[in-house]
């Protein structure tokens, strides 16, 4: 799906947390939203999955304003993983993933055998098959995060909205989650703190500072010494990985 932000200003009470965000994300692009704490990443994402209505501007999905489009269509096509989502702790992991199929069902329909296969496949792809019968309340933070990704995959969305999807994950699962998401071929917009992961997996990086876009483009164009300094207040260098040539990020404190 194509995602467009047209002059989006949004915030809380009277205060805008993001201002005049204008951005076009082509179908299949993987956009990493990066920026310091409080720079507005989650706020931008909330305007996409209808958790926060823009005070000005529009968010368009394949040309339709997400705030006036058919609610059911958006629920079917957009899968979101919020930052503090714990999602129904009484459910088992499999039951939680089955919820991903609900937007596709009619009012009183039950999941079909094909839906159940999709659920099983999503559990396997995220390494959650052995967790299927465990209540969510008994899972570790990272295990729960993977189950919630499985739920998003089971939804078979056209757009994935991910707010810090790797923050509880161990290194293996950080890499496998972003590799999996990048390989889906759907449009992805993800808030990420780990610039190295963003540089390796995203097609486009959007750096936010104080609620405004400071830089946007391919990793090599955005992750420059100037942006590391001015946006993140660190010294940084982008170097090619000696093994696969992909961009890697090295960071140092400004005064070192
Ligand atoms: N519910 C809220 N009510 C009031 N202000 C809020 C609320 N949520 C966020 N803010 C403020 O809006 C600004 C942007 O917050 P946001 O959560 O979008 O930043 P972020 O870039 O996602 O940060 P982080 O990296 O810390 O998760 C911050 O100044 C924050 O304090």
From TrEMBL:
<dbReference type="InterPro" id="IPR003593">
    <property type="entry name" value="AAA+_ATPase"/>
</dbReference>
<protein>
    <submittedName>
        <fullName>Iron complex transport system ATP-binding protein</fullName>
    </submittedName>
</protein>
<keyword id="KW-0547">Nucleotide-binding</keyword>
<feature type="domain" description="ABC transporter">
    <location>
        <begin position="3"/>
        <end position="235"/>
    </location>
</feature>
<keyword id="KW-0813">Transport</keyword>
<dbReference type="InterPro" id="IPR003439">
    <property type="entry name" value="ABC_transporter-like_ATP-bd"/>
</dbReference>
<dbReference type="InterPro" id="IPR027417">
    <property type="entry name" value="P-loop_NTPase"/>
</dbReference>
<dbReference type="GO" id="GO:0016887">
    <property type="term" value="F:ATP hydrolysis activity"/>
</dbReference>
<keyword id="KW-0067">ATP-binding</keyword>
<dbReference type="GO" id="GO:0005524">
    <property type="term" value="F:ATP binding"/>
</dbReference>
<dbReference type="InterPro" id="IPR017871">
    <property type="entry name" value="ABC_transporter-like_CS"/>
</dbReference>
<dbReference type="Pfam" id="PF00005">
    <property type="entry name" value="ABC_tran"/>
</dbReference>
């Amino acid at each position: 799906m194509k995602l467009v932000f047209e002059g989006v200003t949004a915030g809380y009470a009277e205060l805008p947390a993001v201002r005049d965000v204008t951005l076009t994300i082509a179908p299949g692009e993987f956009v990493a939203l990066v920026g310091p704490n409080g720079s507005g990443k989650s706020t931008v994402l909330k305007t996409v999955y209808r958790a926060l209505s823009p005070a000005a501007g529009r968010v368009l999905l394949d040309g339709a304003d997400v705030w006036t489009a058919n609610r059911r269509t958006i629920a079917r096509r957009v899968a979101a993983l919020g930052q503090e989502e714990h999602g129904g702790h009484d459910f088992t992991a499999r039951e939680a993933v089955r919820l991903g199929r609900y937007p596709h069902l009619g009012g009183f329909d039950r999941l079909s055998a094909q839906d159940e296969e999709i659920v099983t496949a999503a559990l396997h792809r995220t390494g959650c098959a052995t967790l299927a019968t465990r209540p969510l309340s008994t899972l570790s933070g990272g295990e729960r995060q993977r189950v919630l990704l499985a739920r998003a995959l089971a939804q078979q969305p056209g757009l994935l909205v991910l707010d810090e999807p790797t923050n509880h994950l161990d290194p293996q699962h950080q890499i496998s989650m972003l590799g999996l998401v990048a390989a889906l071929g759907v449009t992805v917009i993800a808030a990420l703190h780990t610039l190295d992961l963003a540089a390796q997996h995203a097609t486009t990086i959007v750096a936010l500072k104080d609620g405004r876009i400071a830089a946007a483009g391919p990793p090599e164009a955005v992750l420059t010494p100037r942006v590391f300094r001015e946006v993140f207040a660190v010294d940084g260098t982008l170097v090619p990985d000696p093994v696969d040539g992909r961009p890697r990020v090295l960071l140092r404190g400004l005064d070192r």
